[in-house]
Write a structure and sequence with these properties.
36% helix; Alpha-Beta Plaits; alpha+beta; Aminopeptidase; 487 residues; 14 helices
């Protein structure tokens, strides 16, 4: 049942006042802060091995610390914590107010580390060159997820300014998320005794199917990242001399990839990479498809002879099936390669090896370690021509399937979306991987999870021309405030 705004403990005047305060702080403070944040090449440790020496992660966390410290929040404690050999975290503790001061705690999560540059940025912008245009802020990390620490503080401040009771709020802002959050568990262990009874975890690091309603993420796929290396020779030899006698390592790699997925459809073959799709998630996919329609596939920047309208997908254009494909079914991508010279420098040489970086997305409930082991045995056993093949996994993350939404949270999400968008909240899984959600779910098994975000159509997180839709981010901030106060 969809909640009406009048079933929620806020009237239209209160919700409008919250949005006005959020809107002003975004314009006056948050957008200028994010412009400066975009300029910082604070690449995650997986992409900047010398991150500590480079100092950019430290600069990012110091910027956030300075912003938080300057906010007029009563009795807040704030600290940067750095465990030995770990990336730092920002931790703040804000006591609750009014009748909810002694209730359950809200944990506000965010991260400040970034993906690497990538190519293809517009000429007038770049990953570290912010561009404000048509209500969008372009630049790496603007939407993923640098805005979160600023937005969550704005939500708290708006509630306090309107004298709306809220729970105790804890902020945990990490700097290792884009590397799989491998530094987060020690911090969770160290800080858990200080966190108390966490009733709601808020993470603003996810996607939005559109910019016309509030979207709640119901699941996240897992991920196996690793490098498959195929070797036939100790050094390159003339292709005219060896071609036809020595198998090409690229051809061997093609055969091995066929063991993982069907090259015609992209569907993976091993049952280890599959999981039953819960009936509730199918229903939610159908509801999301009713909202989005062909936008599910037309939103991507296709390059084809006839454009997106004429493009033939390898499987289906059914939006329900496509949503399930990208949220509850596995898919393999090749995201990097070594051993291949650029075309401008490629001689007629049969190369000694080919190394491919595999990125295998797996269903939310498939064990990441088991999937990585399956990839390894598939490509390393009984190799063609007795080629030397290795698979080295960089990460193996299990996905996340949200616990059942409590009635109060469903009502709060629907009502918040009605207040700010005129439509009930929408629910959909995401195809990406956010390892910290599994970690937080394990640490706080009785907490409700609000996973939402601003990564809507064409926002292109991880790719070129990433942007933050500012008007949408303002409404998500205000909606988050409403939900926080309902805990």
């Amino acid at each position: 049942m969809t909640a009406r705004p009048d079933t929620f403990p806020f009237n239209a005047d209160q919700s409008a006042a919250l949005l006005r305060r959020v809107d002003k702080q975004w314009d006056d403070e948050i957008v200028p802060q994010l412009i400066e944040y975009v300029k910082l090449p604070a690449k995650s440790p997986s992409f900047e091995a010398e991150w500590k020496r480079a100092g950019q992660i430290q600069r990012a966390i110091e910027q956030a610390q300075k912003f938080v410290a300057a906010q007029p929040v009563k009795n807040m404690t704030l600290e940067v914590i750095t465990l030995e050999g770990r990336t730092p975290v920002l931790f703040f503790d804000i006591p609750g107010t009014g009748s909810k001061a002694n209730g359950r705690t809200v944990l506000l999560y965010g991260h400040l580390d970034k993906q690497p540059e990538m190519t293809g940025w517009r000429d007038d912008s770049g990953p570290w060159t912010p561009l404000l245009e048509d209500g969008k802020l372009y630049g790496r990390g603007s939407a993923d997820d640098g805005y979160a620490v600023f937005a969550t503080l704005a939500a708290v401040l708006a509630l306090d300014a309107e004298n709306i009771s809220r729970p105790r709020c804890l902020g945990l802002i990490e700097t290792c998320e884009e590397s799989g959050s491998f530094d987060l568990p020690p911090y969770l262990d160290a800080l858990a005794p200080r966190m108390g009874d966490v009733g709601l975890v808020v993470a603003l690091d996810s996607g939005a199917g559109s910019y016309e309603e509030l979207w709640a993420t119901t699941s996240l796929r897992g991920l196996v990242n690793g490098t498959m290396t195929v070797r036939m020779l100790t050094e390159g030899v003339h292709s005219g001399d060896a071609g036809g006698a020595v198998p090409s390592t690229f051809r061997v790699a093609r055969q091995l990839l066929d063991r993982i997925d069907d090259s015609a459809t992209g569907m993976t073959k091993s049952p280890v990479f599959s999981a039953p799709i819960p009936a509730e998630r199918v229903t939610q996919a159908q509801q999301a498809a009713d909202i989005l329609g062909d936008v599910v596939w037309k939103r991507f920047p296709w390059q084809s002879c006839g454009g997106a309208h004429e493009f033939t997908l390898p499987t289906t254009k059914d939006p329900v099936e496509l949503i399930l494909n990208r949220t509850w079914r596995s898919s393999l991508s090749i995201v990097g390669a070594d051993g291949l010279p650029p075309t401008s420098a490629a001689g007629n040489v049969l190369r000694p090896y080919t190394a491919l970086k595999l990125s295998l997305r797996i269903p939310p409930t498939v064990d990441g370690a088991a999937a990585a082991a399956e990839v390894k045995q598939l490509v390393e056993n009984n190799t063609p021509y007795n080629a030397q093949v290795t698979f080295a996994a960089d990460s193996a993350a299990t996905g996340w399937n949200a616990p059942a939404f409590a009635p109060w949270l469903t009502v709060a999400l629907d009502a918040a979306s009605m207040h700010y968008f005129g439509k009930p909240a929408a629910y959909m899984g995401e195809g990406g991987t956010i390892p910290f959600m599994g970690m937080l779910g394990a640490k706080f098994p009785h907490a409700q999870m609000l996973v939402t975000g601003v990564l809507g159509p064409k926002s292109n997180a991880h790719g070129p021309n990433e942007f933050l839709h500012i008007a949408y981010a303002k409404k998500v901030t205000a909606a988050t405030a409403l939900v926080m106060s309902a805990v």
